[in-house]
Amino acid sequence: MQAAMVDVLPLLLLILLGSSPTGRAADDEHEEFTVLDLSSLKPHAACTGHRVTPPHNGSWVPLYRPHGPCSPWFRGAAARAKLPSLAELLRQDQLRVRHIHRKASGGHFDESKGARKEPVTVEETQVHHQAAISVQWGTQSMGSFQQTRSIDRPAADDGTSGGPPAVAQTVVLDTGSDVPWVECVPCALAECPYYDPARSSTYLAFPCNSTACKQLGPYANGCVNSQCQYRVVSSIDGSVSSGTYSSDVLTINSGNSITSFKFGCNTQSQNSGDGGPTNGVMALGRGAQSLTAQTSSTYGDAFSYCLPQKDYEKGFFRIGVPSGAAYRFAMTPLLRDRPGGPTPSATVYRVRMVAVTVNGQPLNVAAEAFAAGTVVDSVTVITRLPLTVYGALRAAFRDRMAGYRRAPPQDELDTCYDLTGVRFVKLPRIALVFDGNAAVEIDRSGILLENGCLAFAANDDDSKPAVLGNTQQKTIEVLHDVGGGNMGFRRLAC
User: Burial of 288 by CB count in 10 Å (0-12 exposed, 13-18 middle, 19+ buried)?
Assistant: First the structure.
C-alpha cells in the first residue's frame, strides 16, 4: 500500500508538468529526480525504430540487441524465446569484469590452457544484452564488376555467378578485444548463415610468413597448409574462436567498404552452428588487429556508438569523429600508461572518473578511491564501482528511495525494491564526472533494472578500475577518439 501511494506522486507530476515525446517531463531537466516508467523496460514484440535518427552523412549503421525485435534474427522461435534469468546474466557478467580487470592490469588469458565452456543458456544470456550491427562480408565476381548483396535479399546457393556476392553477418561490438572474427562454413543447417570464403572472389588467406601473420603476437596459433592460424578466447562468453587468419572486403554500409579487412575465419568454434543471433565479433579494442586500427588512416582512428534506451529501439554505430564533436560532447582524456608502473593492456579504453553525484551533490568519497581509473566497456552489462564509491552511492540512493518498500538482494545486486503494482518510479538523478569536468548524467533506464534493483555493483576493493557497463551507457553516444586521445559523451543521442 505504501509503494502504491508513492507511485501516485510522479504520475501527478507528469500530468501537471506535461511530458515530452521522449517521456521526459517538461521541466525534468531542472528537477532533482527523474521518473522511470517501468513498463518501458519490459520486452516488446515489435521494433519501433530509431528514437532519435542520426544525421545521414553515410558514416553510420543501425545498432540493435541480437535477441531484440530490431534484430534480423528475431522471427519464429526466436521471437517466442524465453529471456534468460538475471542470475545467469550476473554470473556471466562477472566473468567479463574479471577479464577486463586482467586486461587493465596487463594480464591476459592463458591461451595455451584452452577455455572453459559455459552452457549455451549462459552464452545467450550475455549476447542478449549486447550491441550488434549487420555488416556484409566478401564479394563474388558478377561478370565485369563486383556486387554487394543487401541484407534482406536472399542468396542463391547453386554455385553460379548468381550466388551470394556477400553474406550479411550480425557481429557483436566489443571494445575489449582486438581480433575481429566471423563464423565460416561449414555449419549444420541446410541454409547456412555463415560466410563461405570459397565463394568470395576477394578472399585471401594469409601465408605463415606474411607480415599480418607475424603481427598477430599472442593470438598466433601456428600454421596449417602454409596458412596462418589464429586463436582467441572470446571475452564475451569464454568460448574459443580459431581458424585461418584472412582478409576480404567488409562492407559496413553502402558508403563504407574496407577492401582488405583482416579477420579470423572461425572454423573451430564450439558453437553448434544453429544459426543463432550472432555470427562473430567486431573487435574495437586498441590492438593492431582491431577495426579501429585497420581504418585509422581513413577514419582518423575513431568510432562511436549509442545504445538505445529500450531493447525494441535502434541505436547506431558510427566510424570517424562526428562533426561538431568539440562542443557537442563532454570530453575527457584517455589514460596513458603510467611511467614505471604496471603496463596495462593496449586493448581497453580507460578514463579517469573523479566524482559521482546524486541529485547534483558529490558523494563524500576521497579522491584515492578513483585512482585505479575507469574502463568504458561495450560488453559489460552492469557498472562496477570501487568498493568505497559504491558504498557511498548505495547509501545516498537508499536515503532518497526511503518511500519504497525494500526487497531482498539478488546476488550482487544488494539494493532492491518491491515495486509490485508500481508503474512510475521517482528516482534520484545520478551523474558520473570525469577528468576535464566532463559530467555525464545516467539515463533513467540505466539507474534501476526491471526487477527493481539498483543497476550498479561493487568491485572487491578500491584497487581495481571501475567498469562502465552498457546499461549505464544507454542513450549516450560514446565517442572513442583514439587518434585525438579523448573519449566523449553526448546525452540523449539515441
Answer: middle
CA dihedral of residues 469, 473, 477, 482 (deg, nearest 10): -20
Q: Which one-letter amino acid corresponds to residue 59?
A: S
**Catalytic choice (377, 443, 462, 481):** 377
3-state secondary structure of 297: helix
Across the range 95-108, mean pLDDT stands at 79
152 flagged as catalytic: no
> Of 28, 174, 237, 443, which is the active-site residue?
174
Residue 377 known to be catalytic: yes
With a cut of 80, say whether residue 187 has pLDDT above it.
no
Torsions phi, psi for 267 (to 5 deg): -120, 0
Q: Cβ neighbours of residue 24 under 8 Å, at least 6 residues apart? A: 34
Let me know: does 103 contact 96? Beta carbons within 8 Å: no
Q: What is the grid cell recorded at 233?
A: 578466447
**CA atoms within 13 Å, Cβ hemisphere of 281:** 30
- Prediction pTM value: 0.84
Environment class of residue 247 by beta-carbon count within 10 Å: exposed (0-12), middle (13-18) or buried (19+)? buried
CB 443 within 8 A of CB 475: yes
